[in-house]
Amino acid sequence: MCVRHVPVFSALDEAGFLAVHKLVRHRDVGKQTLLFQEGEPFTDLIIVRGGHLVLVKHGPDDEEVVTERIGVGGVYGSEKLFTDQQVPLHDVSGIAEIPSAFCLIRLDHFRDLMANDERIALTLLSELNARLAECHRRLYAAGIKDAVKRIAYYLAGEPGISEGKLIEKSQEAIGQALFLTKETVNRKLKQMEDEGILSIEGKKKIRIRNYKHLMAIAHGSAN
Fold this sequence. Notes:
By secondary structure, the chain is of the alpha+beta class. It is 37% helix and 22% strand. The radius of gyration is 19 Å and the shape is globular.
């Protein structure tokens, strides 16, 4: 059951799991598959079962900007459940850059389920609250002028941050979140690695090595 591996549904009891699971349809796709386009009707809640879902926004000059990469266990579209629009629209495009697997739940079916089970509605509201907190973290971090402090503040706000914590984020994703170039992120992370604050483990993993120093930089108390 892909629903069991989704953090947003982790608080549900067995009856809640089964109720959601009955609504699930599976879809497996190959690399570079366009799942939906910006402006199209939103019809399905999407859970990432394997691979990832890349969300892309088009700018005024038709420039593509990656706004988020949703990994296994992540959910796309939960905020659409609480709009007053009967059929909302996608405000981004969704692409599977690598072979990926998804669980789909029709929007109208899920809304009916929430109307009959307030526990599921409350669980989704908690997930939306966490996303809002993440947006606030990004906005505050983006306002910090010093690039190292900006990155440190962003990393320090990761859920469950601690000594030895492995953060699975690419340098490109960090740059997009903080309005920094990939080159700047790479250079500043290497600086932090030289100082023993963290270690870069491959292209998409960062491990915290000195939690106290990271927090000191993030909150402006480092020498």
